Amino acid sequence: SSGTQAYLAQIGGVPVLVLKEGTQRAFGKEAMRINIMVAKAVAEVMKSTLGPKGMDKMLIDSLGDITITNDGATILNEMDVQHPIGKLLVEIAKTQDDEVGDGTTTAVILAGALLEEAEKLLDKNIHPTVVVSGFKKALDVATEHLRKIAVPVKRDDISMLKKVAATSMHGKISETVKDYFAELAVKAMLQVAEERNGKWIADLDNVQIVKKYGGALEDTQLVYGIVVDKEVVHAAMPKRIVNAKIALLDAPLEVEKPEIDAEIRINDPNQIRAFLEEEENILKSYVDKFKALGVNAVFTTKGIDDMAQYYLAKAGILAVRRVKRSDIEKLVRATGGRLVTNIEDMTEADLGFAGLIEERRVGDEKMVFVEQCKNPKAVSILIRGGFERLVDEAERNLTDALSVVSDVIEEPYVLPGGGAPEMEVAKVVRQFAAKVGGREQYAVEAFANAVEVIPKTLAENAGLDAVDVLTELRHIHESKEDGWKFGINAFSGKVTDMWTLDVIEPLTVKLQALKAAVEATTMVLRIDEIIAASKMEG
Ligand code: ADP
Predict the structure, then answer these.
(1) Which of 27, 132, 435, 448 has its CA at a distance of 20 to 30 angstroms from the CA of residue 15?
(2) Strand pairing class (240-249; 339-340)
(3) Per-residue CA distances from 439 to 64, 124, 190, 385, 524 (Å)
């Protein structure tokens, strides 16, 4: 308020305010500096994980549970960052993950580098709004250039999609598993991809991921259908049904037990018999109904008691009980059936269809596989692996791979990786800066310096002398016609044509990472006051 301004002017620019006890307040540059410091610190933590030679982080939560990963989004999530700016970076990582599923570490490191450069400009008394507008102009130039150099590919170019999938998993799992997972990811996404109103959609939600530890990562399998982590409920039931007509229930197949507080007064033993018979008859009538409709498989979210199991088995019906709600919903979508809550009202139209339902042994356990579904877009990946943490990390890797494949199917343009695009951006933004002039020019140049953090960090993580490598890389990008393909081979340390190394990334991942980083930076540079309420005494 103007009252506050007047008060500040009186004391010569030193921000002092009388506040309610406990409230903390920081202004202007001080506020911004605190925020930048926090963002830099978070980005610094992330740097060592970037690229195939990046290290893992061991995260231990308050309950002592351990996660070992180098997945950016997971690290930020688990770090439990308390500071609001730290939380903002967690948000960028989440957005990056939701939008394109990869490049989270890149986005956060870029944001840290942009803020570091911004801080230097603030020191030169360049106003934050000038920095922000310079960064935005640089982002536009960068985006346009990346779109220009991006290579168009065919949506169903399996070999290209595999390279992109493999790049997202470089250094994270063994070479053989990486290629195998890349193949699974490509097959799964191509199966679910579809054209809707002229637009290609490859929705990750259509790929069910089921984890079962035991076995090896190489035992991971792609299932064209749904996997239900339950057994067939009774030994006498069939374990394999061809041409399944399926009832999907959200209803118990059990004799109603009287409510705890209900009192049944029975004087005559015949009454007990009559009561039980009545209940039994209801169950029998359900099974008769199934038979009449030609149902040969039943999945329910609720229980199936012994009596019901007996009748179902006698009718040759395969039944599974206590199916997870999320699984039954997948079955509904995959088999084209409807979830039934009242069996009496069930009709033919409620039934789902699958070419094959089979109970199979997976390790020491049994699972029910529902395949050749009415909706062929339903696929699952059953991840196996020696122990739980390995399976969890495999899931994260596979999700990255599925994401980048989906990115390319939806927008079929790719770029070389290994810091090549960032180096190109630095080059064109520097050229552009000369045309900007004024104080904004400093901000545009700062942007160019900031994006070099990606090749620089890749070089550092490979244990190389980053200064030498960057100089060489800069030179190649500026002087060679196909210089745009050159990046850092994280394994040999050499400046290399990334195309020949098959290190290839989706255009959208690179665009989104730059955009997210600039958005976060802008947000931080717009904050000129922090008002933190006092913590509750506890
Ligand atoms: P992010 O969460 O940002 O995807 P990663 O740790 O997965 O972070 O690292 C991705 C970076 O590693 C990208 O810039 C990618 O091009 C690069 N990269 C992947 N494989 C290689 C490789 N073999 N050589 C050099 N860089 C690589």
Answers:
(1) 132
(2) parallel
(3) 51, 10, 49, 56, 20
| Domain range annotation of the chain | 2-152+416-532, 155-224+376-410, 234-373
Instruction: Please report where in the chains the tokens 């394109």 appear, as a residue.
Output: 100
CB 102 near ligand 1, within 6 Å? yes
What value does the mean pLDDT take over residues 59-71?
A: 75
Q: Compute CA distances 255 → 60, 248, 282, 298, 338, whole Å.
A: 47, 19, 8, 17, 24
State pLDDT tens for residues 382-401.
999 988 888 998 999 999 99
Q: Whose CA is nearest to atom 10 of ligand 1?
A: 51
Question: Is ipTM strictly over 0.90?
Answer: yes
Give the catalytic positions in this structure: 71, 104-105, 400
- Fold of the domain built from segment(s) 234-373: GroEL (3.50.7)
- The CATH code that applies to domain 2-152+416-532 is 1.10.560.10
105 lines ligand 1 (CB under 6 A): yes
Choose which residue among 457, 503, 514 to substitute to test ligand 1 binding: the one with the highest number of ligand atoms within 8 A of its C-beta: 503
Q: Does the pLDDT of residue 534 top 90, yes or no? A: no
Rounded to the nearest angstrom, the gap between the alpha carbon of residue 212 and the centroid of all alpha carbons in its chain is 19
